[in-house]
């Protein structure tokens, strides 16, 4: 860069610069050249180099949820993201959603061949809509029955980018390391990608939902259910409902059956942390493929384990679930794409002990190093509540007050006869009895 002379042609080159703690920003350098021809040759040569890379998206379908988080999705996209896409010569078709499931239903039908990727501007719930639309369309074209829990799903060919504009944004946080719209836009522009585990949730051989971050019963299910009534509060609805749910101290009785992930590397209490190009994910993916093939050939009997009891929370983390409330996440050593789920069981304990467990999510202490907490790395699990779901519907009709419907035999035991519900990536699943398994790699347009 040198000082401009009047007759020099200025050309600005924009590039990605790393800044503090996983943040990326767009920086620029201005070149001046007095020879117009030479200048154009430079620009064309650089453009050819970029085109050769092939991973950069050229045409994107963008969904904006105007009501996610602090309702700033549209503003964030217009002010921070669209100008960067324009600089990178990315063309976009932008859809501002008009109702819940708008993005999901559009994606389930539309011809996706003209797009290089999908971008969702919103939170985890919005991302969930997008993967449901994409996965459903892919299975429909391939003639796969999603209701059959044993179906081998076909991977989607499109990548999904997330511009964080939600309340928790844990999928963005756990993949990029931060929830910053500019950083995410730059990851999308340079064509980064990160595979990610997807689990399916079934009830009585009927497909319910896919999950990519947290599937939580008990505490997180109740927090979500209560928080839906307070959406007007924005992201702080979770703190309010979290506090209420903490005070209600409900526990739920049931049986968990799980299939341990024995063929993969690592365990939920090791020191490994999943980052871009993760060795554990690459290695475990290969081992898992081998073991699945072996089982198909030999019909190997699998070694299911059983845990019965009263639980304050049953959490299935497909990834660390790191977010601003918990920078290391619900399961700090969980992997984004190793084909496994970390199953965390928090048994009935005192309020004080449960608070100790929760507080450890906010600092470096080990939240699993407590007598009432168990954690297993699994491929599959089944939860059956003690009370049948049909009976529960009747009890629900009577109504559940703030402190819940306590066990009628032991009024002081705090064990609920009403079932909780599952929190699936921030969306409610009404059924308590579920069968969950790893089913698919999904590709994100970003990397950690
Ligand atoms: C004393 C402070 C303890 C703080 C403990 C914080 C633990 C936070 C762990 C967050 C895990 C997030 C998992 C991600 C789930 C997402 O798929 C989903 C959709 O976006 N988000 C939520 O369900 C949103 C879930 C939000 C849950 C918030 C829970 C807040 C608990 C507050 C308890 C207060 C007790 C105070 C007693 C004096
Ligand atoms: N136009 C719309 N009107 C109402 N709801 C919508 C609209 N578009 C999307 N939704 C729904 O809004 C819900 C929440 O969206 P989103 O995940 O973006 O924000 P959030 O819940 O605040 O954040 P997080 O999921 O990170 O906690 C999703 O379930 C989505 O289906
Ligand atoms: Ca995983």
UniProtKB/TrEMBL annotation:
Coiled coil: none annotated. PROSITE patterns: DAGK. Gene3D superfamilies: 2.60.200.40, Probable inorganic polyphosphate/atp-NAD kinase, domain 1. GO terms for biological process: ceramide metabolic process. Residues 55-205 form the DAGKc domain. Pfam families: CERK_C, DAGK_cat, PH_CERK. Signal peptide: none annotated. One of its GO terms (cellular component) is membrane. It comes from the Eukaryota. One of its GO terms (molecular function) is ceramide kinase activity. This is Ceramide kinase. It comes from Callorhinchus milii. The lineage of its organism: Eukaryota, Metazoa, Chordata, Craniata, Vertebrata.
């Amino acid at each position: 860069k040198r000082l401009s002379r009047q007759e020099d042609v200025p050309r600005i080159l924009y590039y990605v610069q790393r800044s503090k703690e996983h943040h990326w920003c767009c920086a620029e350098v201005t070149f001046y050249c007095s020879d117009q021809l030479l200048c154009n040759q430079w620009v064309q040569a650089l453009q050819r180099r970029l085109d050769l890379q092939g991973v950069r998206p050229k045409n994107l379908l963008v969904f904006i949820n105007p009501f996610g988080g602090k309702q700033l999705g549209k503003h964030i996209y217009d002010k921070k993201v669209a100008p960067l896409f324009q600089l990178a010569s990315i063309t976009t078709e932008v859809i501002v959603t008009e109702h819940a499931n708008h993005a999901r239903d559009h994606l389930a039908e539309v011809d996706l061949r003209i797009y290089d990727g999908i971008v969702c501007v919103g939170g985890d719930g919005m991302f969930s809509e997008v993967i449901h639309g994409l996965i459903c369309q892919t299975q429909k074209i391939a003639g796969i029955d999603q209701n059959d829990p044993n179906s081998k799903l076909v991977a989607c060919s499109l990548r999904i980018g997330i511009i964080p504009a939600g309340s928790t944004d844990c999928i963005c946080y756990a993949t990029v390391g931060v929830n910053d719209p500019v950083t995410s836009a730059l990851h999308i522009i340079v064509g980064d990608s990160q595979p990610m585990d997807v689990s399916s949730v079934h009830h009585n051989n009927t497909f319910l939902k896919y999950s990519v971050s947290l599937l939580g019963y008990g505490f997180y299910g109740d927090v979500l259910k209560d928080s839906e009534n307070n959406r007007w509060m924005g992201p702080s609805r979770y703190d309010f409902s979290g506090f209420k749910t903490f005070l209600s101290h409900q526990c739920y009785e049931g049986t968990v059956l799980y299939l341990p992930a024995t063929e993969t590397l690592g365990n939920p209490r090791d020191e490994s942390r999943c980052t871009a190009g993760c060795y554990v994910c690459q290695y475990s993916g290969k081992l898992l493929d081998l073991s699945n093939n072996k089982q198909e050939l030999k019909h190997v009997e699998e070694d299911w384990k059983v845990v019965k009891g009263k639980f304050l929370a049953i959490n299935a983390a497909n990834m660390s679930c790191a977010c601003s409330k918990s920078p290391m996440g619900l399961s700090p050593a969980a992997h984004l794409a190793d084909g496994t789920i970390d199953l965390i069981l928090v048994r009935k304990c005192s309020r004080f002990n449960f608070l100790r467990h929760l507080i450890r999510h906010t600092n470096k202490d080990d939240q699993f190093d407590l007598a009432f907490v168990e954690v297993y790395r699994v491929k599959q699990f089944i939860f059956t509540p003690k009370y049948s779901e049909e009976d529960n519907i009747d009890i629900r009709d009577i109504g559940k007050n703030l402190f819940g419907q306590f066990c009628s035999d032991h009024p002081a035991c705090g064990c609920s006869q009403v079932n909780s519900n599952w929190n699936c990536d921030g969306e409610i699943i009404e059924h308590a009895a579920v069968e969950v398994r790893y089913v698919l790699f999904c590709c994100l347009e970003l990397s950690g």
